[in-house]
Amino acid sequence: MMLYRLVRLIENHSQALACCLLARVQSSGATPDYKNVPPEELKARVYEIYRHLGEWLMKKDELDLELRYSDIGARRASQGVPLSQLVWAIVLTKENLWEYIKNKSLLERPVEVFGELEMLQLLDQFFDRAIYYAAAGYERAIAARASTHTIAPTKAQDGMRTADALGN
Predict the structure, then answer these.
(1) Residues 6+ apart with CB under 8 A from 157
(2) Per the CATH hierarchy, to which homologous superfamily does domain 2-165 belong?
(3) Phi and psi at residue 151, in whole multiples of 5°?
(4) Which among 103, 99, 92 is positioned nearest to 26, based on CA atoms?
(5) What are the tens digits of pLDDT across the range 61-71?
(6) Tell me: the pLDDT tens digits for 47-86?
(7) pTM score
């Protein structure tokens, strides 16, 4: 059961993976606005994702994934992180994990290669959905913020528009 071993390897090293990703996000030229995200918050979120990755890969709890990433998207919107940077941070999370798997996996038999391929396919599905749900949460937060900033015109403003339209 290669998939199970790889998942446990990731979960057992989730703290180191989170630290490595934090450094990657902070040093990436593509994520400058992540300076608005407290480093400990980012590290804790990433740790949580890596630590519980096996649960999603094994159980495929779509609702949990949707809630988790919609919340992340909304939070980053409130912190002024552009959507493109949010997506790139998720891509970095995936790349960080793949690099770790590549460096740590010791494949001895062809059946282990198939196990690793299965895991990579599941990881792709996970991160594709993570990007979608984070973007959806981000967009909802932006829309909610825009709707609270829309102010109905006063009667005086309405009257001035009517007068302008009539040529007065």
Answers:
(1) none
(2) Globins (1.10.490.10)
(3) -110, 130
(4) 92
(5) 889 889 999 99
(6) 998 888 888 777 778 898 899 999 999 999 999 999 999 9
(7) 0.75
